[in-house]
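Narrative of activities, Objective 1.

The group set out to show that a structural description can be obtained from nothing but a protein's sequence at a throughput compatible with the screening campaign. Below is one input-output pair from the validation batch, recorded exactly as produced.
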Amino acid sequence: MRIVISRRSVHVGLLAMAVAGLLCLGATGCGGDGDEAADKPVAGTQLCGGDAVSAQASKALKVITGSSRFGTTAEESTVASAAALLVEAFPMATGGRDDVCRIYTADGTPDFAIRVTWGLVDGPPTGTPAPNFTVLKMGERTLAAADKAYVQFACESDKLAGSPTAAQIRIGVERWGMPEEPEGDIEALKDAYATVAHSFSLAMAKELRCEKDGGLPAKPVLNPA
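Output recorded for this entry:
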């Protein structure tokens, strides 16, 4: 999560100035080169631990957000951290979604937020998807819309022992906190969200050491099923 601190001049006497000085000394990146380092935008491939967003997914993020510059993500917001939590939760279904990381465009660019999530589900996907989704041939089932995509894959791994069946893992990538309808080329947006979701899913499969990468292809497959 990105935290933005606005700076305001404080003129409330010497005591307040001294307190502010002490707070500054105790803060990370307060003033000078530290500010420049904290505010420096990063490329998509550096987000969420640096091993979750492929070069192709980084280009897809630009299609989605209109920007190739992003704010830094929290140190603990990584696929490795999410995988550790998933292993702890297995074999019980999580009943919801937990964050892998959240992606924000850099300061000085149009605001855009993306939430990447993981979840353990009860079994293989069933039912008919909503009409705004396109079904793609990746994993157990991949669903892509103009503002989100979900990849579900089955994982057999020595890290996920204690269940007679493979873990059913769902990775989601969705526009976050933005109620407006998506604008632009709908099919291009669907492909872009599916590409990012595939990248995070493949990174999770590799982190968990899933047999045959959970059946996920090395590159995103964007042809409808």
